[in-house]
Every structure is written in C-alpha cells, then in structure tokens.
C-alpha cells in the first residue's frame, strides 16, 4: 500500500476530495469559528463585529452582571442535581431491567420515548402538568388536600426543580439504556463466581460491577454534562427564564446578547465562558481516556 | 402422552428432595415472589411517571375549553372533540400569521429531508475515507471533529451567521440544511467510521485488486453492505433535526421557522386567552413525527443512540 510515488498530493486524490467537507468543518467551523469568537470577545463589538480591542472589559462586565451570575448559579445547581439524579436513576433502572424480567421491551419503550421528543415539547407538557390552576396541585386539592401546594414553576426558589423534573423525564431513559448496555457487556462468569462465594447481590454491584463499568460511567457523565451546559430549549419552553430572572441559563444570555440586544462582544464573552466550562469537563476526561490507552 | 409427562414430574420430585438434603442449585423460579413484586412494582410506578405526560397531553387535546377549565387533567374527556386539533393545525396564530402549525410542519419537512440526506451522505463518505483511504492528517481532522462536537453551539453561532451571509444563504432553507449537515457531522462520521472498521478488510482489498476506485467501491460494495447503519443514521438524524430549536430560531426567518419554534411561539405567546387544549394539540402534533419514528424503529433507535454515544 505504501510505496513512494511522485506527486504525493495527488495520491489518493479522490479520498482527499471526498474529505473536503470534513476538513472544512473541522478547520473552518470548529477551530476557526471558536478562535474567531474568542478573539472577538476581547473587542467592543456592538451591532457588528469589529476589531477594537478592549482587553478583559467584556469579561469584567459579564461577571458583574447579576443576570449572568444567576445563570451560572442556576447551571451549577441544575447541573449537580441533574448529573447525580440522571446517573443514579439511570443505573438503578438498568439494574432492575437486568433482572431477567419479562416485558423488557415494553418497559424500555415507555421509559425511552421521552428521549425522542424535543425539549420544546418536554417543556410545554410539564408546564401544563405543573400548572397550579389545573395540574397536580389542583388535583390534589380537589381530592381534599387543601394544604397541598406544588407550584414549582412560579416560585423563584423552586423553579429549577420544575425544570429538573422535566429534564429527568426526558433524559433518564437514555442513560438507563447506556447503563443497561454496560451491564450486558459484563461477563456472566463474574455473577457465577460471586454466587459460588456467597456474596450478596448488592455487594457485587457496588464493589465489582460499578468499578468494572467505569468507562460507561465516564462516557455517560461526559455526555450528560455537555448536554447540561447547552441547556436552552427546555428553559425557553418551560419558563422562558422566569419568574423574573430566576431560571436564566448561560445559553439564553448568549442568545439574547448576540441576537436581541445587539451587544455582540458581550455574547461572545459569555459563550467563551461556556466553552471554558466545557474544557473543564472535557480535559480530565480526555486525559483519562487517552492517557489510559498509552499504558496498554 | 402421559408417559412423557412422567419423567418431568419425577425430575421435579428429585430436585425437591435434593433441596431437602441441603444441596445448592438454581432456585426454581416462582412467578410471584416478594422480589418479583418489588421489581415489577417499581418498574410499573416508574412507567406511570414516564407515560403520564403523554396521556395528559392527548387527553387535554381532546377536550373542549369548558371541560378543561372544570376539570381534572388526568381524566379522559367526557365529550371527545377534535376541534383543538383542527385549530392547532390550521388556525392558531403566531404573530401576524394565523395559518396554524401546518406552516411549521411543512417547513420542518423541507428542512429535515434534505438535511438528513446531505448530512448522511457526507458523513458516510467521511467514515469510508477515514477507514479505507487514510491520508496524511486524516485522523487529526477526525479528532478535531470529535472534540468539536463538545464545543457549545453558542460559540460557533455567530461565525456561522457570517459564513452563511457570505455565501448569501443566511435566513434560507439551504443555509439551515448546511448548518445541520455541519453540526451533525461529528456523531455521524463516528457512527460510520466505527461501522466500516468492523467490515472485513479483505473485501476492500479484493475490490482494489480488481481495479475498483474510490467511488466505485463506495457505491457498489460499501453502500449495499451498510444498509443497517444507514437506517440507524436516518433515525438519529430525523429525530434530531426535527427536534432542533436553536438553529431554527437563529438561522431562519419567521416564515421559515420549523415546527418547534412555531410551537413555542404559539404556546408561550402572552396575548389573548390561553387555549390549553389547542396548545396541547399543537404539542402532540409536533411530537408526532419523532414519536412515529421511535415506535416504528424500536430496537434500532436504541442501537442508534447507543452507537452514537458509547463507542468513542
């Protein structure tokens, strides 16, 4: 296959032509676009991008804007709860599904269908189910529980949990499937060996299975985390960032500054911060993934 | 007939006596044991949580407004009406347009179909080139692509706007198709690359020896052999692009808004009296296409999302 021929550029020419879209996407859009945004975040671009550098001014303004601070706080709170709950629930459901049960396909179909729906649909449905005038609160009260109050979406203190209920509904089925695939990938012999040794099932899960599924957990973590940082449609549909600014998220801030408030550089600075938070998640993962392979 | 039944029952007796003497074997499976009750009970409760919103959505959309105001969102309608569906489809207003969600539906169809075709074509060729026609640097581009898929879209939105403006297709359907093809590329390329790497290499080598070139091998050998992975990719893309909101709102004009954007505008508009039944009918309508794909594709859907996610 190797063999040196004249004109190395033209060797394999069809493959190179075919790869033009990929090269373009990788270099121009991903690398170029990202660098462009980061560079312009140090300018004072308003309506149109222009290269008038102002140092860290945009970032200083960003971090002294209360709306941004609320967004970051919301994202972290939502992120922590969402990660913990999706992964725990996803794993527990996968364990239940792995008990050689009947109707596995039916159960899975029901748990996974929300994942096929958009965040817009998810947000709107839960907005309706959680509607205090008609939804769960109304039902409970009409059953005689007058004290019952469940109106997360209209209370700044609890609105994130309203989002969380919807987010978990949409995403846990997917995590369950990933975990189930991980469980199915584990050698049956381990279960037999554990049974011979008389180790209780829960101990096998905690001390043997979960450590063996490390890779699955890490991948799930990365997927879920990068999804959380992008959180946008769900909030737009379910709460529009309200009440007040109580459920704002960074992605909404970016959109509003770039496309509504005509303050481009502020939007660029905010999106660069989003990129930074992804790198914080991604770099340790890449290190584990690719640092691990070298040892083999 | 009774003879064949006898050995079975005899075996049953012997295994029972073996248990009496303390020998350990596989426990006979009982249908109703505390363990099973717990497992199925929990799963059932969980399923109620998952299924309830769909039920509520459909039930609300089949009620008239007086009944919605009276009532219990979980109860089935006393009087079934399809009026909300008709209204959501043909009359609901967004801004100045009052031609309902049908506009968004057709826009979404006009966005989704070409985007799915173009993105899959490009990604499958990428995967094929990456496995069988490696050239210097090809793996580097792939790595950039994969890492790029983790970059928040917000970072690349404005450069993309500029790019489309330069190409003269900002705000058009073609522009949005290009955006979907670009941002769908990492995951699809990964999918196809993994699939092609599992095909036997001898096949490719034999075709090379017979003098077939890049395109011929792709169209005559690779493509026919990879129908399953194409189906998986189609499922992934149809649901993903149909459900997209961000790109639709950023890269198109109001007349071309996809269904999700229009739905959000209808339901979250502040003007007028809220018609919850129409809103829910509109929501169900928007969810119908991905739900249809999901229920028809079944296991392939699971395979699609798992293949896209786990193998890295």
Features:
heterodimer; A: 296 residues; mainly alpha; MetI-like fold; 14 helices; disordered N terminus; B: 312 residues; 2 domains; 15 helices; 0% strand; globular
Fold blueprint:
The complex is a heterodimer of chains A (296) and B (312).
Chain A: H1 13-18, H2 20-40, H3 57-63, H4 66-97, H5 104-116, H6 119-129, H7 136-142, H8 159-184, H9 188-196, H10 201-212, H11 214-229, H12 233-238, H13 250-260, H14 264-295
Helix pairs in contact in A: 2-14, 3-14, 4-8, 4-11, 5-8, 6-8, 8-11, 11-14, 13-14
Chain B: H1 2-20, H2 34-61, H3 65-70, H4 83-90, H5 102-132, H6 138-148, H7 153-167, H8 173-198, H9 201-209, H10 214-225, H11 227-242, H12 246-251, H13 259-267, H14 276-297, H15 299-309
Helix pairs in contact in B: 2-14, 4-14, 5-8, 5-11, 5-13, 6-8, 8-11, 11-14, 11-15, 13-14
Q: Unreliable segments of chain B (pLDDT under 50, ≥5 consecutive)?
A: 1-24
Provide a count of the helices of chain B.
Answer: 15
Secondary structural class of chain B: mainly alpha
Structural class of chain A: mainly alpha
Text of the CATH class of the largest domain in chain B: Mainly Alpha
Low-pLDDT stretches of chain A are: 1-5
Shape of chain B: globular
Biggest sheet record of chain A: none
Say what the CATH topology of chain A is.
MetI-like fold
Q: What is the residue-mean pLDDT of chain B, rounded to a whole number?
A: 84
Kindly report the oligomeric state of this protein. Answer: heterodimer
Q: CATH-wise, what's the superfamily of chain A?
A: MetI-like
Number of strands of chain B: 0
CATH superfamily of the largest domain in chain B: MetI-like
């Amino acid at each position: 296959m190797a063999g040196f021929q004249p004109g190395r550029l033209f060797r394999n020419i069809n493959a190179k032509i075919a790869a033009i879209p990929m090269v373009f996407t990788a270099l121009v859009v991903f690398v170029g676009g990202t660098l462009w945004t980061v560079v312009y975040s140090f300018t004072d671009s308003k309506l149109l991008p222009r290269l008038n550098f102002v140092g860290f001014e945009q970032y200083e303004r960003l971090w002294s804007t209360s709306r941004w601070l609320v967004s970051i706080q919301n994202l972290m709170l939502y992120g922590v709860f969402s990660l913990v709950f999706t992964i725990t629930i996803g794993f527990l459901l996968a364990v239940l599904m792995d008990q050689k049960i009947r109707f596995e396909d039916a159960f899975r179909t029901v748990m996974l269908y929300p994942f096929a729906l958009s965040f817009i649909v998810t947000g709107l449905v839960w907005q309706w189910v959680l509607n205090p005038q008609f939804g769960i609160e109304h039902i409970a009260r009409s059953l005689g529980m007058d004290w019952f109050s469940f109106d997360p979406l209209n209370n700044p203190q609890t609105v994130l949990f309203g989002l969380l209920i919807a987010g978990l509904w949409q995403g846990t089925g997917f995590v369950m499937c990933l975990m189930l695939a991980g469980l199915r990938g584990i050698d049956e012999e381990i279960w037999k060996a554990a049974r011979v040794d008389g180790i209780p099932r829960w101990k096998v899960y905690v001390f043997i299975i979960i450590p063996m599924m490390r890779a699955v957990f890490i991948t799930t973590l990365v997927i879920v985390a990068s999804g959380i940082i992008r959180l946008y449609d769900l909030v737009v549909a379910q709460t529009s960032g309200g009440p007040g600014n109580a459920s704002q998220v960074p992605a909404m801030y970016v959109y509003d500054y770039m496309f509504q408030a005509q303050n481009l550089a502020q939007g660029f600075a905010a999106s660069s911060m989003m990129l930074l938070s992804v790198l914080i998640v991604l770099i340790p993962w890449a290190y584990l993934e690719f640092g691990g392979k070298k040892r083999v | 007939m009774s003879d064949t039944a006898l050995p079975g029952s005899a075996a049953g007796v012997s295994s029972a006596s073996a248990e009496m003497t303390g020998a350990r074997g596989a426990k006979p499976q009982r249908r109703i044991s505390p363990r099973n009750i717990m497992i199925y009970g929990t799963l059932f409760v969980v399923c109620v949580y998952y299924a309830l919103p769909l039920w509520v959505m459909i039930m609300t959309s089949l009620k008239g407004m007086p009944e919605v105001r009276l009532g219990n969102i979980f109860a089935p309608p006393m009087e079934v009406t399809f009026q909300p569906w008709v209204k959501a489809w043909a009359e609901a207003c967004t801004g100045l347009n009052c031609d309902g969600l049908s506009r968004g539906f057709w826009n979404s169809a006009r966005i989704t179909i070409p985007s799915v075709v173009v993105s899959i074509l490009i990604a499958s060729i990428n995967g094929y080139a990456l496995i069988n026609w490696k050239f210097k640097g090809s793996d580097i581009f792939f790595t950039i692509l994969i890492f790029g898929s983790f970059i928040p879209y917000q970072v690349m939105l404005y450069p993309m706007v500029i790019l489309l403006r330069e190409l003269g297709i900002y705000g058009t359907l073609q522009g949005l198709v290009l955006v979907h093809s670009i941002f769908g590329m990492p995951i699809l390329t990964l999918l196809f690359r993994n699939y092609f790497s599992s095909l036997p290499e001898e096949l490719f080598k034999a075709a090379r020896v017979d003098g077939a070139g890049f395109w011929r091998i792709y169209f005559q050998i690779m493509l026919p052999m990879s129908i399953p992975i194409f189906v998986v990719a189609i499922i992934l893309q149809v649901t993903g692009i149909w459900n997209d909101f961000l790109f639709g709102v950023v890269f198109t004009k109001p007349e071309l808004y996809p269904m999700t954007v229009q739905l959000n505008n209808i339901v979250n508009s502040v003007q007028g009296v809220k018609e919850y039944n129409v809103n829910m009918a509109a929501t169900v309508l928007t969810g119908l296409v991905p739900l249809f794909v999901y229920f028809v594709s079944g296991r392939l859907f699971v395979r699609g999302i798992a293949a896209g996610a786990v193998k890295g």
